[in-house]
Amino acid sequence: MQLVGYRSSGNGSSLLVSDAAGEVDHRPLETGEELAYSLGERHCAGTIDEDGAHVACDRPSAPYCEYHTSTWVCARCTGTCLKDEMDCYEAHAVYIAAFAPDTFKVGVTKRRRLETRLREQGADRAAHVHTVSNGRIAREIEAEIAERLVDRVRTGPKVAALAAAVDEAAWESALAEFDVLERFDFDYGIDLEARPVPETIASGTVVGVKGRLVALANGGTTYAVDMRDLVGYDLAEGPSNRDLQSSLGSFG
Question: Whole-prediction pTM value?
């Protein structure tokens, strides 16, 4: 078996596990579900074809080799189209997302995907601040705002946000310059008193999922696992036998 991908959305999150025949099983990550996989070697996760079958790849690069890495040029756009022909003629939203306690990020997405995109990122709060007619204009606005706010949030601050609350004063200050069109306040159902320990495991009880982070309880400690860091690992049935770092709270 190999872990070949993941899905993270407001409609349910799952790990994608492929068997030797290429059949892909969506392993749900609902709260209370038990995961019991140990991790083996890691290599390219290959690809999933249009029929939903996994096409394996044994190249050593992970999570994907150069032949299975897809580069979305729009992610690098700042207003000058990088494609041969611009095709983003659709309403786009510019948003500010909050990650507790006080990391605030500017971003762009298609207007119809706004709430979905925010949940995919694991935002705690968000404000829709502009709607424009195409992606080029949206990226220009984003680039200008990114001179004051970040446009990317790494895993570390997102792990910290699992056990923190948004700084209300800082959030309102960040929004003061904008005419807010719509506000979002997300609840992922994760109630933690202490910051979880970052780990790469696929074994434990699911506490909850926030963006691409899954919180797993294992041996008295809660771990925060970035699902992207699992992609490409060969799996074996049975709980992990690795020595895991424990939180201080697990010792009583």
Answer: 0.87
